[in-house]
Specification:
The complex is a heterodimer.
Chain A (H helix, E strand, L loop, with lengths): L3 E5 L3 H13 L3 E5 L2 H11 L3 E5 L7 H10 L8 E5 L4 H10 L3 E4 L4 H12 L1
Parallel strand pairs in A: 1-2, 1-3, 3-4, 4-5
Helix pairs in contact in A: 2-3
Chain B lengths: L1 H7 L8 H57 L2 H12 L4 E8 L4 E4 L10 E10 L2 E11 L1 H53 L14 H34 L4 H14 L5 E7 L5 E7 L3 H5 L2 H15 L3 E3 L7 H9 L4 E9 L2 E10 L7 H92 L8 H31 L7 E4 L1 H11 L1 H7 L2 E5 L8 E4 H18 L5 E9 L2 E8 L20 H5 L8 H11 L4 E4 L18 E8 L2
Parallel strand pairs in B: 11-13
Antiparallel strand pairs in B: 1-2, 1-4, 3-4, 5-6, 5-9, 7-8, 8-9, 10-12, 13-14, 14-16, 15-16
Classes of the chains: A alpha/beta, B alpha+beta.
Chain lengths: ~120, ~675
């Protein structure tokens, strides 16, 4: 059974591009376009990995990650942040909240796949 | 000061005059009484002695009478009986009957061993005019002494002592009434005066010397009291004026006091102004008619005279003055006019004028007081004038300062506003760049991702033209991303948001990290990168690894961009004392002279770079410069490279460029 990846990003282009990449690499993909929906979907779908944007309407990626890490069902799911915020402080903050990796936008597709494969094996 | 000594000389009275008087009286009375006593005793003694000697003569005469026969008839027995009988008198000490040849015939028993203090009586015995012998009787005087001591002397002593006491008492009482009582009153009054009660007067003490003394004393105290009042007045007035600093206030005080305390009916003050103008500055008690009749000019005239002569001008007899003058003054009922100049040394400040209806007013001592007061007043006025000038000066100064401060404050305010505006603008710029950069990154993510995928032929192979176009899109996307990243870095550095995390760094190691990142480009362009080994092992340099990486990356990227394929880049480290020098030298075309001064300016790109379509943002060198300077180092460029032979380059070869930056060792 293929591994399931949840993409949470409000940018449809990015979602589409990442989804294409992942499916091409035989991953099952679900997506949400804002934090709250992302958390709901994560509890519901129990994906193997979550790719999380930070700057989103309603609740941002950091808050969503914090909620996921507080929830018994989702706290074990690894999270990779995908964000246009590239400052050291931004990275540190997210890693502190429990994110496993941090990829600064824009990124090369190959780079993303390398990191995803590293976690999902 | 002799006066002080006299005032302080207050002898304690040890022995009152009364005591001394009685003592002196005793000195005279006691010997006198003793002398009188002595004389009385002498007299009494004489009487007693006479009495005794008379008695003993009687005994002797009796014996002599009875003896005449006895001796003749030698009737010794009879004589013996008589002698026996007489010697029974206890005062008779010894009786001796001798014949003419002094041969004892009959004698009594001796009652004493010697008869020094005895009375000796000798009576011759005659028988028919013929002396037959002598009767000798020694009579004791001890009884006399006994009698005197026991009775007479006691009485006498009593009388003498009583006499002394009585006489002394009488003398004392009389003298007390006559002299000491009155002296005591004088003394008491004097003590009260000494204690400061100047209202003390001595009651009338008669017409003798003491009475005169009391009168003199009263007069003296009256004088002192008057002087005291004058001094008090002077003191009060001086104190009142010295307490004030404002000239108007001082003049008000003086004018009021002149009327109230100095019994003036009217008064005025004239002052010499700054311009030398002599002018009345204030007045009290002058009638309107006097003022209307040009009385002020008259007063001014008189005051000016006092000022001219430098001494007080007191006018009592106005008949001696010109008619017009006296008429006006008489009409104003001015009987006495006093003008006292106000002087400090030679400086004439003005005149104090006081007038009175009372012709007796202002006796010489009062004028003296006024002069003393005028001296004080002059000093006070001068102080007030100085104070006024100082106040004026300080006020002007304050105004000037206020104006200057106001200007300064306004300028400051403008600067502050401008500064705030600048800070705001700078912040807005930073915010703008940050936001724009982030907002640009998200869409660029999908552009970069999709073009990457298309170029790689992931969704399906493109034909040659499509691929070429897609590569251009992809390349420009990367360029855009570089630009955004650099812009973001620059704005961060400029906003002071970049903090250096310095750690001791091995520069060679950092350099190799950077070269590793660039390996693809290097291989692609077939470049020759040479890192010259340093003469001595390099010291560790305190620097921020990320930023140093950025500096090296920028300089190397820059060098790589401008050298042709198979070109060479040399990296050289040099120990320059306090600094480590890092040189990045390329053998490219070099930099034109007109570009050299601007090479580190942001967005500056040489005309040549633009013409040759060299990809770049024009921010890399600017960022590098900022970062080097943040580390306390310097960066500069040199082109053409002067020491090409060091790098084994042909001198006819391309100019090349040498970028050098320094990092402090500490």
């Amino acid at each position: 059974m293929s591994k399931k990846v949840l993409i949470v990003d409000d940018e449809p282009g990015v979602v589409k591009m990442v989804k294409y990449l992942l499916e091409k690499n035989s991953f099952a993909v679900v997506s949400a376009n804002e934090g709250e929906e992302g958390v709901k979907l994560a509890i519901q779908e129990k994906p193997d990995l979550i790719l999380m944007d930070i700057m989103m309407p309603l609740i941002d990626g950091n808050e969503a990650t914090r909620r996921l890490k507080e929830n018994e069902v989702t706290k074990q799911i690894p999270v990779i942040m995908l964000s246009a915020l590239g400052q050291e402080g931004d990275v540190a903050k997210s890693l502190e909240l429990g994110a496993m990796d941090y990829i600064v936008k824009p990124f090369h597709p190959q780079e993303l796949m390398d990191r995803v494969k590293k976690i999902l094996g | 000061m002799p006066n002080e000594k006299i005032t302080n000389f207050r002898p304690k009275i040890k022995f009152t005059l009364g005591f001394k008087f009685v003592a002196a009286l005793m000195v005279v009375l006691i010997p006198l009484m003793l002398l009188i006593g002595f004389i009385i005793i002498k007299q009494v003694k004489q009487v007693v002695t006479d009495d005794i000697s008379k008695k003993s003569k009687n005994y002797a005469s009796f014996l002599a009478k009875v003896s005449r026969q006895g001796i003749k008839e030698a009737d010794v027995a009879i004589l013996k009986r008589y002698v026996q009988e007489i010697s029974g008198d206890k005062d008779v000490l010894y009786i001796l009957l001798v014949d003419t040849k002094n041969k004892p015939i009959i004698h009594s028993e001796k009652k004493a061993d010697n008869f020094n203090s005895a009375l000796e009586v000798q009576i011759p015995i005659f028988y028919k005019s013929e002396r037959t012998g002598t009767i000798k009787i020694w009579y004791s005087l001890s009884r006399v002494a006994e009698e005197l001591t026991t009775n007479v002397q006691q009485v006498l002593f009593l009388v003498v002592v009583l006499g002394i006491i009585l006489l002394g008492l009488v003398m004392f009482v009389v003298s007390e009434q006559m002299i000491f009582n009155r002296i005591g009153k004088l003394l008491k009054a004097m003590r009260r005066v000494q204690k400061g009660d100047l209202s003390t007067r001595v009651e009338k003490l008669g017409n003798d010397e003491l009475g005169y003394l009391a009168g003199q004393f009263n007069q003296m105290v009256t004088q002192v009291e008057e002087n005291q009042q004058q001094l008090t007045l002077l003191f009060e007035m001086s104190r009142a004026v010295t307490a004030a600093l404002d000239i108007t206030l001082i003049m008000d005080l003086v004018l009021e006091m002149s009327v109230e305390k100095l019994q003036g009916t009217s008064c005025s003050i004239f002052l010499v102004g700054d311009s030398g103008l002599f002018k009345m500055r204030g007045a009290r008690g002058l009638s309107t008619s006097f003022v209307n009749a040009n009385g002020i000019a008259l007063l001014e005239d008189m005051a000016q005279k006092a000022l001219l002569y430098n001494e007080p001008l007191v006018i009592r007899d106005f008949n001696l003055s010109p008619g017009n003058l006296s008429a006006l003054l008489i009409q104003e009922q001015i009987a006495v006019m006093v003008n006292i100049p106000l002087l400090i040394g030679d400086r004439k400040l003005g005149v104090l004028n006081i007038n009175s209806h009372n012709p007796e007013a202002f006796p010489p001592e009062r004028v003296e007081l006024l002069m003393a007061f005028a001296r004080q007043l002059a000093v006070v006025l001068q102080n007030a004038q100085l104070y006024e000038q100082t106040q004026q000066f300080s006020k002007e100064l304050e105004e000037k300062i206020n104006i200057a401060t106001g200007n300064l404050a306004r300028a400051n305010e403008r600067l502050k506003l401008a500064n705030e505006k600048l800070v705001e603008l700078s912040q807005a710029k930073s915010d703008f760049i940050a936001i724009v950069s982030h907002e640009l990154r998200s869409p660029l993510t999908s552009i970069l991702g999709f073009t990457d995928l298309l170029v790689q032929g992931e969704p399906g192979a493109l034909n040659a033209t499509q691929k070429d176009f897609m590569e251009i899109i992809n390349q420009n996307t990367r360029r855009l991303i570089d630009l955004i990243n650099n812009l973001l870095n620059l704005s961060k550095i400029e906003a002071g948001k970049v903090e250096l995390k310095k750690t001791p760094l091995d520069l060679e190691k950092t350099l190799h990290g950077v070269l590793h990142n660039l390996r693809l480009t290097i291989t692609e362009k077939k470049l020759n990168i040479r890192v010259l080994p340093p003469a001595e092992p390099l010291a560790l340099v305190p620097a921020d690894e990320n930023q140093l990486t950025a500096i090296l990356l920028n300089l190397l990227t820059n060098a790589i961009k401008y050298i042709p394929t198979q070109g060479e880049v040399v990296i050289n480290f040099k120990d320059a004392g306090k600094f480590i020098e890092v040189q990045v030298i390329d053998n490219g075309d070099g930099i034109e002279d007109k570009d050299l001064p601007h090479i580190f300016d942001r967005f500056y790109r040489s005309a040549k770079a633009k013409a040759e379509h060299v990809i770049g943002t024009g921010l890399g060198l600017a960022i590098s410069k900022l970062l080097v300077e943040m580390h306390g180092g310097k960066i500069w460029v040199e082109s053409p490279v002067s020491d090409k032979e060091v790098f084994n380059w042909d001198k006819r070869d391309r100019n090349g460029a040498k970028f050098t930056f320094t990092l402090p060792k500490n």
